[in-house]
Amino acid sequence: MMASTEVLLGFIDQIPVGEGRTFRVADLEIAVFHTAEGAVYATQAFCPHRQGPLADGLLGGTTLMCPLHDRTFDLRSGCGTSHEQLGLATYPTRVSDGEIWLHPVPSPAREAAE
Amino acid sequence: MSKQKLVVVGNGMAGARAVEEVLARGGAEMFDIVMFGEEPYGNYNRILLSEILNGIQDADGITMNPLSWYAENGITLHAGHRVEKIDRAAKIVISNGGVRARYDKLMIATGSRAFIPPMQGVRMEDGSLKPGVFGYRTIADCQQIVDYARRSKIAVTIGGGLLGLEAARSMTVLGCESHVVHLAGHLMEMQLDVAAGGILKKTIEGMDIRVHTSKLTTEVLGTDKVEGLRFKDGTELPCDLVLVAAGIRPNSEIGQLSGLTVERAIVVNDHMQSLDDRDIYVVGECAQHRGRLYGLVAPLYEQAKVFAEHVTRTNVNAAYHGSKLATKLKVMGVELASMGITDPTDDNDEVVQFTEPKRGTYKKLIVRDGRLVGGILMGDIGKAPFLMQAFAQDAPLPEERLSLMFDLGTPSAKVTYDEMPAETQVCNCNGVTKAGIAASVVAGASSSKAVMAQTRAGMGCGACKGEVTELVSWLLGGEVEEDPSVHYYVPTIPMRKPELMREVVARGLKSVSSVFRELGNGEVDPSAKPALASLLITVWKGEYEDERDARFINDRVHANIQKDGTFSVIPEMPGGVCTPDELVRIGQVAQKYNVPLVKLTGGQRVDLVGLKKDDLPKIWSDLGFKAGYAWGKSYRTCKSCIGTDFCRFGLGDSMGFAQRIERRYRGIDSPAKLKLATAGCPRNCSEAYVKDVGFVAVGDGKWEIYVGGAAGAHIRKGDLLFTAKDETEAMLIGSRFMQFYRENAKWKERTYTFMERIGLERVRAVVVEDSEGICADLDAAMEASIAATVDPWLEAVAPKTANQFTSVIPAKEDV
């Protein structure tokens, strides 16, 4: 059973700026993104549409585009921006001394912003 | 309030569609839905049965609602159960398998079956069809026919309607001598007049199918299996397979058994309810509405909608008023549109007609009081959308009758789409209009596939797929004048491509981030990043500042991402030629990495599919090949035929030329993929006529250069740009064309759209006649781009970014 305490993922420079990488915490895979603005966001690893690997997607600001069928999401909320009914579970993260910490309890997948 | 029970008898196109319509209206909240289907599958597209016969598709390929769909929507499906009895008093249906289901509302959509006309000897003593005689209505029928046809020499199809003709075509594909026997004096008499039927007959005979019209079959010969047919005129035709496509009969027995009013089919009111029982609805071919039966899919779908609105009470006034029959179809590759009457029935009817028998073109319109009451278009059906719309709406026609048949002075499809009224129905099967398709594109659908999935346009008979695709590409290509942003190279930077290129040069912007910073509005659209990267590479060549986050995943790991997140690797193989050693090496690598699929590509190379990202660098090192660039918006490959080395017909060294092309252009980025081919003679074995750039040897060392060809979702023969006197000149002109395209095409605009947008004359003027004085610049730019390319697979030993090829990174401090 996964503890609900924070987990140290690794150093922020393991993720190139503007890209994402998939991390594994216990048996859970999580996509972690390092935006051009220097922020870090974490979401479920696979697209709710057809299970595209989200860490391989394209980032623009906080918008993520899945590599398979161009579905887009807002990393801050997990909300789908191209298809409102699709949403991502997100994980709280923080960066301290160049290290990424993640709280491995997801905020539920959300649908369109209210 | 507890849910009501909705039972649907029949799981064909009408039944399943009706349930979809119910679900779309929140029906899942209102009803527990139970469906019965006689066939053991989900719902499939019966219109495409001929594709099963000729092997283009398997059963999965024509399935519209797989069994999983029923489960996902909470529908209980009893597949393989025929309902035998409706106990209206108890409100229960009972299947032949003994399943009983109680209903509050019942819907009957039992469809129809193949009509077997009375013929002596057609049945055995036990009532079954004589071995070798087949109806043609279900997947099971098709499977049996295919098996039997493999053992048969001569196949006869009885019935020269749409179904019969498609079946007859399939018989030739299955290797049989194929005949069509038709009762009427001309083919497809429901849709065509005598003249059109005659032209169609000629076209079909050209496909090696023998057509016998005005023939009434009276007897099926043979004692224990089919040996021939005898006709009323006394003649006989030996054969070993008989396919009966002589019309359909509604499955309305269930109505009779249940005490419902049945005439030719079960009689319904405008709400699609049985006259005798308001809790029983009937939809589709088994329903008779205002004295008429409908067998086309579009009316069925209209009925399904009325039923759904009524039964869910989303519109208690929903009513069906009958359909005007207009249909667009493709029979044996011949495009055809037919609406209303086929011959004038009133002295004052005005007939407008055009015939060009040699090309199989026939157009005939019947106009009454300035309105269209009938029409036939064959061969060229470009005006069909407009005419079918006018017919359906009973709209007044333009005085200039000629313009009804031809697009005068409007050669390109663009103008036609521009003019097409928003409410014009593009897909008749699913009732999707131009406006519906446009709305889907505006909502973000970026491919015709996405539009089709969303709107279901093109998902019925499929005849309109081409039109939907063209319309979508037109909408995406953006020639709409009202909104200037459609011309922008990327949405957030208000500049067209040439302007943007000048600006990045003037400001010295060499990276994608700098372009966004200096020219953007603060918003970074992820889909714009690869577009800008492509443009900057073309502009700056070796000086481009590569920011990997701006590239699509394929360009970050130099492989092609697959649906499951794995990648494919295609080594370079110029001209489709390799040494035995190289082939062995590819095989060894495939073994070593347990490659799930080794596939020859359309570009004459070997594709290793299903590889883990982590393995890519090792695989490249082990292969020892250069990258094949099969993942990118770039020069891809150059196919070739065997040319002069071994071929008896070769006129030019296509193989050597293709290799020289590949070694020159490999790795050249471009707005969309560039697929090339060289053909050693006009037999075109390497398909050079339908490539982005194709070279065809025509003798005396000359090469014809074709550009803008396509043979994918869009099919277009390339335009003959120039005939070069030798290979050197061919290479030069081809190169110039590609550079002109690189600098002027929109992002993801393939050469076939580019050529239609720019026009052959202008392209030829620029790259052949140097009308703008830029040929030297184009040549120099291409040389510089070639000099700047680096094999990206060298990153195997020198990764460019952190964890570039790592699929999963373990957390440092796990729990």
Please provide a written account of the structure.
The complex is a heterodimer of chains A (114) and B (815). Helix content of chain A is 0%, strand content 38%. By secondary structure, chain A is mainly beta. Chain A has a four-stranded antiparallel sheet with strand order 2-3-4-8, with no helix packed on it. Chain A has a three-stranded antiparallel sheet with strand order 1-10-9, with no helix packed on it. Chain A has a three-stranded antiparallel sheet with strand order 5-6-7, with no helix packed on it. In chain A, strand 5 and strand 6 (63-65) form a beta hairpin. Chain A starts with 6 loop residues before the first strand and ends in a 12-residue tail after the last strand. With 815 residues, chain B is of the alpha/beta class. Among the domains of chain B are: 4-112 and 250-311, FAD/NAD(P)-binding domain, CATH 3.50.50; 133-246, FAD/NAD(P)-binding domain (3-Layer(bba) Sandwich); 486-551, no CATH class; 632-790, 2-Layer Sandwich (Sulfite Reductase Hemoprotein, domain 1), CATH 3.30.413.10. In chain B, helix 13 (434-442) packs across helix 14 and helix 14 packs across helix 15. Mean pLDDT of chain B is 90; it is low at 409-415 and 478-483. Strand 2 of chain A pairs parallel with strand 41 (809-810) of chain B, so a sheet runs across the interface.
The helicity of chain B comes to 25-40%
Number of helices of chain A: 0
Total number of strands of chain B? 41
Strand order of the largest sheet of chain B: 5-2-1-9-21
Using the coordinates shown, work out and report the CATH topology of one domain in chain B. Answer: FAD/NAD(P)-binding domain
Question: How would you briefly describe this protein structure?
Answer:
The complex is a heterodimer of chains A (114) and B (815). By secondary structure, chain A is mainly beta.
